[in-house]
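Explain the record.
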Amino acid sequence: MTGKVHWLKAFVLAGGAGTRLSPLTTFIPKGMIPISGKPFIDYVITYLAKHNVRNIIMLLSDEDAEVFRNHLDDGSKFGVSIGYSISPRKGTSAAVRDAAGMIDGTFLIYYGDILTTLDLTEMLKFHREKKAACTVAFSTGVRFDYGVGKIDGEGRVQYFEEKPILKDYPVSIGVYLCEPKILDYSSAGPDLANDVLPALVKKGERVYGFLTPEPHHDIGSFKQLNEAKDVVKRLDRPSGKSGPKGH
């Protein structure tokens, strides 16, 4: 890791219901699911701390906030400062809008159910160089779960590949660098990815994509949760390297 981004404030989205992990998430918030003996959110906070991001705001639903606060407290055990924005579960855009009073400059949005080794220093440098309103991290190394084909006008298969990596179609990994002006678009809808980002692009705002060749890992489903467990096992090996591969 090069450079320091310790002044960068990170907003971690961890208020989702985690319905695809039901009934597990009926009893425990998705971000608090233990992996290798630690709640998943610990890996997120540790990743941010290793990139010198020391000011972290947890965006939580009022249903799950107490569980996170009891565990994370003020963040001192991670060497960071953790604050909280707690609101009803209304969507990712609404969660950021409700925390608008804490936004005072360029800020990071990090989806709290992913693992990544994205170089935040390089991403921030790119964001500044482009004078972007929003920079979205994209992976060119995500393998699709299905076979993909291209069919001509007569129905003949021109191309087929099982579970390919399509570098021409990079995948958003849930990490955004933003300027406060994106708050002007929060009324586009409740979801950042579905509503706000398309509105920014349509309006011609300076939205850029920062590419990384590594895949990311999330815990959105039981299959992905099991894959993340394997990643965490590699993370915990005393190899001297930080973070999971990719992202």
In short: The longest strand covers residues 171-178. The chain has a mean pLDDT of 85. The first helix runs from residue 24 to 27.
